[in-house]
């Protein structure tokens, strides 16, 4: 009962709802980058929302189903095919035994999700199946998927949902809703006005840890550093060089840069799907 | 105890204590953190205790933010006796080659012999103010002024797991292989982070470094 990875794509990992409860030990939460898409994929195959899925980054995988399985694909459009023929996203799809599912590079979005009805049969590490690669923690052997991996899936006889849901639009630009961050009051009115006026570009340092933004240099308050304090997904830190970094799923648990705003959870999902070079703008909720 | 509870994103609160790094503030954070942890509040997913703050992450589906805020603000946190007792964790460190990568440089820079550096570094236990930045990484307080050493001009691309270093007013242990700019004066053979034991020490513990020989290092490494 497994799926066999024939081509691992660019950086494909197993993720679930996240590893909570160990942040006091310095362990990042990890979990889905785009929670909405992952939840949708799970819902389509009647899995619980936070069931483990395969998360693909920019370039999708190719796998063989060693038995008949039911999957749902959401997130970035990587033009999925079954045995060479296009298949629908946002809909439960039955894959026959020995069926080969393949993906291409993402035409829209960044992170693609494959939910398997019943879920992936891998052990939980510290309560979660999410992969945190830097500490070789969780997921499939604590690493990104590789060619030849046999990913066990749970046997199931459940029936998936028949209907197809509407695919969201992943645009190369996004308006991101945010709320005031812990150090909001330290920044001057002028600095904040410039921050919300600016259009930022997603820099090449964009990954599961965080997304660096290029554009204006944010005017820092006099006190441009804080005593190391907690970091959560969506925290927008301003570095001492005035560069905003949005902390994402694998963010370190603490940091010392000033925290200007926090993205809403839906905006974290939207941001995760904006590719390098994409444009974003912050809007105060 | 003086603190305020401020919203942090949509699903967290920040309990903010005095704007300082001090033992007094640390003990307040510790008492508050330990009590919240013991309570297992339904809907609270995680706590991140730091020098002078605690981040409380919660699930909006499970608990009303307003309810949690009122709860966090009104819980009578107390500094319990047992929380003030010192839990000392001994960490063996080999301060010799090939593990003490920068010992020669540090010795020259500080104008101290290797033996003096080891004696000072192992003299007293260090307070673990917090764990953060990376799994199992301890922020230790109480480094003797004589060992304050500037960071390396160019960080090493790879520091071995267990490396013990000095950086400005700090000392610490790298739990995993990472790039880093600390001056390495030794290495511990024991694992500070593993999935079986996510961290050997907790915030509020004390760490006592104990000097060991290369032979003892090898022996401990292989057990």
From TrEMBL, chain A:
Upper lineage: Bacteria, Pseudomonadati, Bacteroidota, Flavobacteriia, Flavobacteriales
InterPro entries documented for this protein: CT_A_B, Cyclophilin-like_dom_sf, PxpC
Keywords: ATP-binding, Hydrolase, Nucleotide-binding
Organism of derivation: Wenyingzhuangia gilva
Gene3D superfamilies, sorted: Cyclophilin-like
Domain Carboxyltransferase stretches: 24-285
Superkingdom: Bacteria
NCBIfam families membership: urea_amlyse_rel
One Pfam family it belongs to: CT_A_B
Name under which the protein is recorded: Biotin-dependent carboxyltransferase family protein
Automatic annotation (TrEMBL), chain B:
Enzyme superclass (EC): hydrolase
UniProt xrefs under NCBIfam families: 5-oxoprolinase subunit PxpB (TIGR00370)
Carboxyltransferase domain location: 3-201
PANTHER family: 5-OXOPROLINASE SUBUNIT B
Gene encoding the protein: pxpB
Keywords in alphabetical order: ATP-binding, Hydrolase, Nucleotide-binding
SMART domains: AHS1
UniProt GO MF annotations: 5-oxoprolinase (ATP-hydrolyzing) activity
A Pfam family of this chain: CT_C_D
EC number assigned by the record: 3.5.2.9
SUPFAM superfamilies: Cyclophilin-like, PH0987 N-terminal domain-like
Record InterPro entries: CT_C_D, Cyclophilin-like_dom_sf, PxpB
Official protein name in the record: 5-oxoprolinase subunit PxpB
Gene3D superfamilies per UniProt: 3.30.1360.40, Cyclophilin-like
């Amino acid at each position: 009962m497994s799926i066999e990875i024939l081509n691992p794509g660019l950086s494909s990992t197993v993720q679930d709802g996240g590893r909570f409860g160990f942040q006091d030990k310095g362990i990042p939460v990890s979990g889905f980058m785009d929670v909405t898409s992952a939840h949708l994929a799970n819902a389509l195959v009647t899995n619980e929302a936070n069931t483990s899925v395969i998360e693909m980054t920019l370039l999708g995988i190719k796998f063989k189903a060693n038995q008949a399985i039911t999957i749902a694909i959401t997130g970035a459009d990587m033009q999925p095919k079954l045995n060479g023929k296009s298949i629908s996203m946002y809909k439960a799809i039955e894959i026959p035994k020995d069926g080969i599912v393949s993906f291409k590079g993402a035409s829209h979005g960044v992170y693609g999700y494959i939910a398997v009805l019943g879920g992936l049969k891998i052990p939980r590490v510290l309560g979660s199946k999410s992969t945190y690669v830097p500490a070789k923690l969780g997921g499939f052997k604590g690493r990104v998927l590789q060619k030849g991996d046999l990913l066990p899936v749970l046997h199931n006889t459940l029936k998936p949902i028949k209907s197809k849901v509407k695919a969201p639009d992943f645009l190369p630009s996004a308006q991101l809703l945010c709320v005031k961050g812990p150090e909001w009051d330290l920044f001057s009115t002028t600095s904040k006005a410039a921050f919300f006026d600016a259009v930022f570009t997603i820099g090449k340092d964009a990954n599961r840890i965080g997304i660096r933004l290029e554009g204006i240099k944010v005017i820092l308050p006099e006190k441009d550093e804080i005593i190391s304090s907690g970091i959560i997904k969506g925290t927008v830190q301003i570095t001492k060089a005035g560069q905003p970094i949005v902390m994402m799923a694998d963010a370190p648990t603490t940091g010392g840069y000033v925290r200007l705003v926090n993205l809403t959870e839906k905006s974290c999902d939207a941001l995760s799907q904006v590719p390098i070079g994409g444009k974003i703008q912050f809007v105060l909720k | 105890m003086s603190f305020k509870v401020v919203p942090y994103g949509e699903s967290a609160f920040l309990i903010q204590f005095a704007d300082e790094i001090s033992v007094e503030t640390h003990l307040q954070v510790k008492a508050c953190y330990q009590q919240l942890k013991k309570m297992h509040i339904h809907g609270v997913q995680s706590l991140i205790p730091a020098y002078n703050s605690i981040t409380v992450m919660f699930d909006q589906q499970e608990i009303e933010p307003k309810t949690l805020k009122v709860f966090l603000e009104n819980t009578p946190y107390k500094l319990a006796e047992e929380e003030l007792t010192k839990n000392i964790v001994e960490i063996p460190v080999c301060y010799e080659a090939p593990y003490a990568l920068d010992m020669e440089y540090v010795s020259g820079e500080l104008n101290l012999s290797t033996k003096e550096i080891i004696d000072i570094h192992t003299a007293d236990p260090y307070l673990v103010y917090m764990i953060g930045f990376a799994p199992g990484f301890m922020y230790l307080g109480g480094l003797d002024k004589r060992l304050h050493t500037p960071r390396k001009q160019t960080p090493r691309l790879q520091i071995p797991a267990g490396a013990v270093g000095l950086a400005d007013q700090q000392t610490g242990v790298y739990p995993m292989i990472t790039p880093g700019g600390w001056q390495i004066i030794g290495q511990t053979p024991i694992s500070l982070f593993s999935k079986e034991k996510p961290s050997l020490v907790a915030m509020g513990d004390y760490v006592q470094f104990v000097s060991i020989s290369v032979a003892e290092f090898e022996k401990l490494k292989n057990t």
